[in-house]
Amino acid sequence: MKTQLHRGRLIDHIQLVVRDLKASQEFYTAVLAVLDIPIIGTTESYFWADELVVSSAESPAALGMLTGRHHLAFQAKDCATVNAFYFAALAHGGQSNGEPAERSYHSGYYAAFVIDPDGNNIEAVYHGEAQRSAPSVVIDL
Question: Which InterPro entries does the UniProt entry name for this protein (predicted)?
Fold first, then answer.
């Protein structure tokens, strides 16, 4: 089976070790679907979507330790996607940590913040109209 990965500029991958894998999988499946990011694979102890790996403490890679609180920001293609992310998160176990709105970080920074089932601050952000040099770096394995 041929695998194709899309990579960004800085982070290779992030692993979140969670208390309730089922609740996290429901949450992340819903919010990532809104962002057009598919869940690539699942096992009994983890699932992954591109650079994000979410596992239970029982997963061999977790070493029995929860990861604690993190802030993750996902890129959205437009303001409507930020809004859809926010409402999908609330409908699937997330709690509001900042309704969709333009933020003061820079002109056109439109974002929403939610708390996932493990207390992580998860954001969807649209930076405004911009020209990308490439949609992503593609790695064929």
Answer: Glyas_Bleomycin-R_OHBP_Dase (IPR029068), Glyas_Fos-R_dOase_dom (IPR004360), VOC_core (IPR037523)
Cβ atoms < 10 Å from Cβ of 55: 21
Per CATH, which fold does 14-59+66-126 belong to?
Answer: 2,3-Dihydroxybiphenyl 1,2-Dioxygenase; domain 1 (3.10.180)
pTM for the predicted model, two decimal places: 0.86
List, for residues 91-109, the tens digit of each pLDDT value.
999 999 999 999 998 889 9
Q: In what order do the strands lie in the sheet with 52-56?
A: 14-18, 52-56, 46-49, 41-42
Residue 82 half-sphere exposure toward CB, CA atoms < 13 A: 24
Q: Where are the domains of the chain?
A: 14-59+66-126
Alpha helices in 1-141, H assignment, sequence order: 21-34, 79-91
Is residue 87 a contact partner of residue 35, using CB atoms and an 8 Å limit? no
